[in-house]
Automatic annotation (TrEMBL):
This is PD-(D/E)XK endonuclease-like domain-containing protein. It comes from candidate division MSBL1 archaeon SCGC-AAA382A20. InterPro entries: PDDEXK-like_dom_sf.
Length: 228
């Protein structure tokens, strides 16, 4: 079989990809006790605790993954603007919920607004390797938890989670209604995290945390999985 020699172009592109997409975006993962992310509503609390205490960064291999996810969000936003009109789709909104001792902040994905600027609909975009589980099981629970602070912050009673399959851009979306009990549960979980970070120590490894989260967790060395 003929041996393929790397072309100069391969190196040019690889170098560009590494330079452009091989680094984290500044401040993306910065953590401060008392300020938590909307996505923490649905994460393993012990993992978030370690993010604060140990500050370990995502592996460099994961940065391109985030950049590609952002590009898919751009494609969805472009498509929504094409459908609704450029002026009616806002790129994102910042939300901030104050709960006394702590706050939850977040940056939404595209939002549909009315002609007077009123917020009408939130889209949360998730890129995925495969839609198989989402087709079988519906929206992932940690995504449903994550959109609750967004809905609360924007005053919406529903939103749409849009899954996009990376290899062919196949789309599957679900409408999710605001559920007071889920929101209260998420808030209480963050309170447990906050108490842990202000002297209580690591929260328990929870049954809430799915197996895949442990499999990909950067703290698996520090955490006796399923311990406590
Ligand atoms: S290994 Fe699992 S239980 Fe432990 S911190 Fe990571 S995600 Fe949580």
């Amino acid at each position: 079989m003929r041996k393929l020699e790397p072309k100069p172009f391969d190196e040019i592109l690889s170098n560009y990809f590494n330079e452009k997409f091989g680094q984290k975006e500044e401040s993306f993962w910065d953590r401060e006790v008392g300020t938590y992310h909307a996505s923490d509503f649905g994460k393993c609390l012990r993992k978030v605790y370690y993010e604060h205490e140990l500050g370990k960064r995502e592996s460099e291999n994961s940065y391109p993954h985030f950049h590609l996810g952002n590009k898919i969000e751009d494609v969805v936003e472009y498509s929504l603007k094409n459908h609704y009109g450029r002026d009616l789709i806002k790129n994102s909104y910042r939300i901030e919920l104050n709960f006394g001792d702590f706050r939850v902040v977040g940056q939404t994905d595209p939002v549909l607004v009315g002609v007077n600027g009123e917020i009408k609909k939130l889209f949360e975009v998730k890129s995925t390797k495969s839609l198989k589980f989402r087709e079988e099981d519906g929206p992932a629970e940690h995504h449903v938890m994550q959109v609750h602070p967004y809905m609360a912050g924007l005053g919406l009673d529903s939103c749409t989670i849009v899954y996009v399959q990376k290899n062919d851009l196949k789309v599957l979306s679900y409408d999710v209604c605001f559920d007071k009990e889920k929101f209260a549960r998420g808030k209480n979980r963050i309170l447990v995290l906050h108490k842990g970070l202000t002297g209580g120590g690591p929260p328990k490894a929870e049954p809430f945390c799915p197996d895949w989260e442990c499999d990909y967790c950067k703290y698996s060395n520090e955490c006796p999985k399923g311990g406590d």
